[in-house]
Amino acid sequence: MYKLKIQSDKFPMKPGHLLGRFSTLPDASTRLPQPIRAGGRRAGGPRRCRRGSITLEFGLVVLPFIVFVAALTEIVWQVTTASVLDAAALRASRFGITGQQRLAATPPALTCRSLAIPWLISHSTGNFLKSSRITVTSQSWATLGSQRDAAAPTTGAGQGGQVAVYTVEYRQPYLTLGFFGAASHRIHRATVTVMNEPFSNAVC
Hints:
Layout: H1 45-96, H2 113-124, E1 134-141, H3 144-148, E2 154-155, E3 163-173, E4 185-195
Antiparallel strand pairs: 1-2, 1-3, 3-4
Helix pairs in contact: 1-2
C-alpha cells in the first residue's frame, strides 16, 4: 500500500481551499465598511447622509412651489370673478332700462324688476355667481345734469327717461387664503350707469 505525501512547501494551501472549490475568504481590500454604532463604530456611511440632503432639498423646492401655485390659482379665481361680474351687471342693466318687471324665464315669485335683476345676474353666468351672494343697489336721477350736480338721488331703478346707477356687489370666497388665516371672502363691485327708455311702468 502506497502513501502519498504532499509537501506544504510544494503545494501551498490558499485561504478558502478548505471551504470548497468556489468559496473564498474576503481579503482586506474587499471588506465592506462596518456601521458605526454606539461607541464610535461606523453606522451607515455617506449613503445615509446623501438621503438626508435629498429630503432637505426636496422640501426647500416643493414648499415654495406649492405656495406659488396656490397664490396663482387664487389670483386667477378672483380676476375671473370680477370679469364675469362686470359682464353680468351690464347685461342686467340692459334689462333694467326697459322697465319690464320680469322676463319669460324669471321665476314666478320674482314679480318686480328690482328682484329680478339679482336673479338675472346669476342666471346669465350659468350660476357661476350665486344669487345669495349678490347685493344690488340702484339709484336714479331725473336727468344726467342732476346726477352731475350731485343732486340727491332717488332710491330705485327710476322711471322712464331717468338716469339710473346700478351698484352690484358680490362676495366671492377665497379658495386657498382661508387656510393661512386670511379673510374668508373678497368683495367685488361693479357699477353701471344707464338711461332708462321712455316707458310708463310704475317704479319697482
